[in-house]
Automatic annotation (TrEMBL):
<protein>
    <submittedName>
        <fullName>DUF1295 domain-containing protein</fullName>
    </submittedName>
</protein>
<keyword id="KW-0472">Membrane</keyword>
<dbReference type="Pfam" id="PF06966">
    <property type="entry name" value="DUF1295"/>
</dbReference>
<keyword id="KW-1133">Transmembrane helix</keyword>
<dbReference type="GO" id="GO:0016020">
    <property type="term" value="C:membrane"/>
</dbReference>
<feature type="transmembrane region" description="Helical">
    <location>
        <begin position="118"/>
        <end position="139"/>
    </location>
</feature>
<feature type="transmembrane region" description="Helical">
    <location>
        <begin position="145"/>
        <end position="163"/>
    </location>
</feature>
<dbReference type="InterPro" id="IPR010721">
    <property type="entry name" value="UstE-like"/>
</dbReference>
<feature type="transmembrane region" description="Helical">
    <location>
        <begin position="69"/>
        <end position="87"/>
    </location>
</feature>
<keyword id="KW-0812">Transmembrane</keyword>
<feature type="transmembrane region" description="Helical">
    <location>
        <begin position="201"/>
        <end position="230"/>
    </location>
</feature>
<feature type="transmembrane region" description="Helical">
    <location>
        <begin position="6"/>
        <end position="31"/>
    </location>
</feature>
<feature type="transmembrane region" description="Helical">
    <location>
        <begin position="38"/>
        <end position="57"/>
    </location>
</feature>
Length: 267
């Protein structure tokens, strides 16, 4: 078994950082042109695609070919689907209320404030969460059962995220759903199937990396991602004030799991 190529991995880090800066820098320029910082949500998935491509190219002479291909394809498919979905969903809409609230607190130069608070912050999180991809690309042992378990977890996550997003979009497009609560399909078992799926995607990618040394050192990345989704800027922020806007939401919360899919509770 060959030793881990730490020098080659270290040499790749400037390229992955550059990939993040290029994606978010371009997105920032687009946001200033269209007057909406919500476009950064489209770049979130695409940034991981750019990191995966940069790591794949940098590890061409190192790393197991199968693991490298998996760590290119898995985040690539996830990121492209997510970016296209958010782009279609936000077409024709104004600024996201989250960014409106943030920009209302801006002092001094608003563009510089947005760049620091939105783009640099998301870039740092993106780069840290992607560490399993970056480290795993250079791991030399071949795939193990843990590698394929990771692919399975990733597939479950992509299913929940893609199907949950599609069900929610159909619900929103139906005029009869105005003011109602989506509690059918995957949304019957969890209030956030797309967030649960997102967490599974990153745990699956992490398992592919963890299946060979030193992937275990990156375990904090999926932990952080899951925390953001379940406790940080994901679920809590989205549900804030929802009961006031949708009369049936409080009852939906009482009978439906907040994150992990479970059978509905009787109320």
């Amino acid at each position: 078994m060959a030793a881990y190529p730490w020098a080659a991995f270290a040499a790749s880090l400037p390229f992955t950082l550059l990939a993040v800066l290029l994606v978010l820098g371009t997105t920032f320029a687009v946001a200033l042109r269209v007057g909406r910082h919500a476009v950064v949500d489209v770049a979130w998935g695409l940034g991981f695609v750019a990191i995966a491509v940069a790591s794949y190219l940098a590890s061409a002479d190192d790393g197991d070919p199968t693991r490298r291909l998996l760590l290119l394809v898995l985040p690539g498919l996830w990121g492209l689907r997510l970016g296209l979905h958010i782009a279609r969903r936000s077409r024709g809409h104004g600024e996201d209320p989250r960014y409106e609230a943030l920009m209302s607190r801006a002092t001094g130069n608003k563009a510089w404030f947005a760049f620091r608070r939105v783009y640099l912050t998301q870039g740092a999180v993106m780069w840290f969460v992607s560490l399993p991809i970056q480290v795993g690309m250079f791991s030399t042992p071949g795939p193990t059962w843990l590698t394929w378990l990771g692919v399975l977890v990733w597939a479950v996550g992509l299913f929940f995220e893609a199907v949950g997003d599609a069900q929610l979009q159909r619900f929103r497009d139906d005029p009869a759903s105005n003011g109602q609560v989506l509690d059918t399909g995957l949304w019957r078992y969890t209030r956030h199937p797309n967030y649960f799926g997102d967490a599974c995607v990153w745990w699956g990618i992490a398992l592919v990396a963890v299946s060979a040394w030193p992937g275990i050192l990156t375990i904090a990345s999926p932990v952080l991602m899951t925390w953001f989704l379940a406790r940080g800027t994901g679920k809590p922020l989205l549900e804030k004030g929802m009961a006031d806007r949708r009369p049936g939401y409080a009852d939906y919360v009482r009978r439906t799991s907040g994150f992990f899919p479970l059978p509905p509770r009787k109320t």
